[in-house]
């Protein structure tokens, strides 16, 4: 049992090291790759863990079921999100919303008009940021842009364009098949549809250039 646990831990460390090597050189000093410690986590996600420091977190138990090429493209999708600056910030919006609403209620009692306006403004900004973060159309646009950039990153690391599209497409199909949540599944389906359109355009460009 102990030897199994040791070999599993060794394999996980080896995979994290391998993925670290897939980071573009310009990201290697401030992006880290770790196994997630969350309960029921997403397959792969990123979060800010400090000023100018981002951590890519992976559920290695689920990750292990994917082929290497599929892992690589999903990893580069996450890298692209970091490069595009579309990963969520450290959750200040919820705190600001709570403080702002709490302040607004408090100021209604003491009737301080200026403070009431400030509290409502803080709530408004935080609420708008939360709306933007959870806006489905915007989220899909950011995800498809990250997919495009992941394809470009793959070619930078030696993939042919058709193989890059094929690997990401097959990875998205696996995620669609494995995800029980309809809402999440439909996001992957929309990304796959967009990827197919992009691949068709790239193929047409290659033909016309050839």
General description of the model:
By secondary structure, the protein is mainly α. It has one domain (2-89, 134-209). Helix content is 70%, strand content 9%. It has a three-stranded mixed β-sheet. β2 (44-50) and β3 form a beta hairpin. α6 packs across α8. It starts with a helix and ends with a helix. The model is unreliable at 91-97 and 103-110 (pLDDT under 50).
Throw out a few tags for this protein.
210 residues; three-stranded mixed sheet
Short description:
The protein is mainly α and 210 residues long. The protein has one domain. The protein has helices spanning 2-20, 60-63, 68-83, 92-110, 113-134, 136-156, 161-178, 182-209; strands spanning 31-35, 44-50, 53-58.
Main sheet strand line-up? 1-3-2
Q: Main β-sheet: number of strands, strand sense, barrel status? A: 3 strands, mixed
Total beta-strand segments:
3
Helix content: over 70%
- Measured by DSSP, the beta-strand proportion falls in 5-15%
Structural class: mainly alpha
Give the overall average pLDDT. 82
Number of domains: 1
Distance between the termini: 57 Å
Number of helices: 8
């Amino acid at each position: 049992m102990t030897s199994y646990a040791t070999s599993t831990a060794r394999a996980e460390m080896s995979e994290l090291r391998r993925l670290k090597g897939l980071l573009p050189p310009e990201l290697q000093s401030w992006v880290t790759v770790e196994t997630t410690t969350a309960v029921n986590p997403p397959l792969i996600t990123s979060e800010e863990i400090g000023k100018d420091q981002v951590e890519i977190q992976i559920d290695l138990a689920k990750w292990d079921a994917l082929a290497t090429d599929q892992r690589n493209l999903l990893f580069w999708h996450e890298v692209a999100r970091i490069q595009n600056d579309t990963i969520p910030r450290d959750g200040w919006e919820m705190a600001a919303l709570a403080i702002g609403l709490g302040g607004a209620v408090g100021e209604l009692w003491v009737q301080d008009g200026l403070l009431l306006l400030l509290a409502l403004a803080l709530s408004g900004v935080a609420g708008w940021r939360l709306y933007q973060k959870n806006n489905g159309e915007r989220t899909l646009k950011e995800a498809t842009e990250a997919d495009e950039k992941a394809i470009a990153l793959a070619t930078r690391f030696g993939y042919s364009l058709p193989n890059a599209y094929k690997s990401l497409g097959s990875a998205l199909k696996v995620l669609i098949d494995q995800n029980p949540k309809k809402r999440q599944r439909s996001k992957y389906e929309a990304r796959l549809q967009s990827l197919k359109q992009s691949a068709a355009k790239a193929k047409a460009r290659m033909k016309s250039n050839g």
